[in-house]
Amino acid sequence: MAHTCDQCGKPATRWVDKFSEYLCADCPAGASLTDQQWDRYVAEQLEDEYDQGAP
Q1: Where are the domains of the chain?
Q2: Which whole-number Å values give the CA distances from 35 to 30, 51, 54, 55, in the listed order?
Q3: Are 3 and 22 in contact (CB under 8 A)?
Q4: 52 or 45, greater pLDDT
Q5: Where is 22: in which H helix or E strand?
Q6: pTM higher than the cut 0.85
Q7: How many other β-carbons are positioned within 10 Å of the β-carbon of residue 22?
Q8: CA neighbor of 29 nearest in space, from 40, 39, 17
Q9: What values do phi and psi take at 18, rounded to 5?
């Protein structure tokens, strides 16, 4: 099954696992995330840094 870009609807060329979205070559990863999804992504990044012992 062909997938379409989650942002513009063109044929998707890649799956971005970090953001759980399909994207075409023209659209940047993460731009179609809702505010809630973005907040969760940022929180996960902070947790990862904390787990690695970053200050």
Answers
A1: 1-55
A2: 10, 24, 26, 26
A3: yes
A4: 45
A5: strand 21-23
A6: no
A7: 19
A8: 17
A9: -60, -35
